[in-house]
Each structure stands twice: as structure tokens, then as C-alpha cells.
């Protein structure tokens, strides 16, 4: 019940905007064709950004056929970090600092910090329900 309450508050006070921004960014990346690996990562982040409480971000299990693993995944994350990741992470970090000011905002700030960490290296990560 608390997760539902926190998710609804999150959605009303910024989660909807954040999720939509990730969706639109993913759509622009998909239009370029070259940006497809990052588009899929952006859409996963959008899903998390809309409804984060009760879910967690984890590294995917190693699979040799998966493009998000190994040297290619590291290379994709490095390009992402240089081009866009640090800007997005900085925006989530600044929002988290503002949310930490109030006691009520601390759970939301922690989720924004998770989003900032995810924005730095999104390839090779997945989102799952918390046990």
C-alpha cells in the first residue's frame, strides 16, 4: 500500500514528466537507427521512471549473444556518458538535492539518485520487481 502511495505521489510530482522525457528521448534515438541500443535503454528507464517504488535496477545476467555485455556494452556506455549521460545524471542529481531539503522528499531523492546512476551507464542494466 505504501509503494502505491509513493508511486502515485512520484507520478504527480515529477515522475510523469521524467518518464515522458525518457520516452521522447528514446523515440529520437530510435529515429537515427544508430541510436537503437540507447533507445531501448531509454525506454526501460522511462518505465522505471514512471513507477519506481517496489522495483530495482540490476545488471543483466551475462549472455554472450547480448549486445549490452562485454566490450561492446562498455563502449556503448562510454559513448552515452560523453554525449548525454552526464547531463541527464546531473539533472537528476540537482533534483535530488532539492528533494533532500524536506523530510518528505527523501524517498523521492533516493529514487532520483538511482536514476542519476542509471543515466550514467544504461546499457546492460534491467529493472525487476523487488522481492
Describe this structure in words.
Strands 1-2 form a two-stranded antiparallel sheet. It contains four helices and two strands. It has one domain. Helix 1 (2-31) runs antiparallel to helix 2 (36-50) and helix 3 runs antiparallel to helix 4. The relative contact order is 0.17. The chain has helices at residues 2-31, 36-50, 70-100, 106-120; strands spanning 55-59, 125-129. With 131 residues, the protein is mainly alpha-helical.
How is this fold's topology laid out?
Blueprint: H1 2-31, H2 36-50, E1 55-59, H3 70-100, H4 106-120, E2 125-129
Antiparallel strand pairs: 1-2
Helix pairs in contact: 1-2, 3-4
Question: Roughly what fraction of the amino acids lie in strands?
Answer: 5-15%
Helical coverage, percent range: 55-70%
Instruction: Report the sheet with the most strands, covering strand number, pairing sense and barrel closure.
Output: 2 strands, antiparallel
How many individual domains? 1
Average predicted local confidence, pLDDT: 89
User: What is the CA-based Rg, rounded?
Assistant: 15 Å
Strand runs, count: 2
Please work out how many helical segments DSSP would assign.
4
Class from secondary-structure proportions: mainly alpha
Low-confidence stretches: none
Q: What general outline do the C-alpha atoms trace?
A: globular
Order the strands across the largest sheet as they lie in space: 1-2
What is the terminal-to-terminal distance?
A: 15 Å
Order of helices and strands: HHEHHE
Give a short summary of the structure.
By secondary structure, the protein is mainly α.
